[in-house]
Amino acid sequence: MTVVEVKHGTHERFIEAASRKKILAHKCSKCGHLMLETVMFCEKCSAGKFEDVELEGAGTVVTYTIQAVAPEGFEDAGSYAWVVFKVNNTSVRASGFLPGVKTPAELPVGAAVRVKGFDAKHGLLLEKA
Ligand SMILES: [Zn+2]
Question: What span, in angstroms and rounded, lies between the C-alpha atoms of 45 and 86?
Answer without folding.
Answer: 21
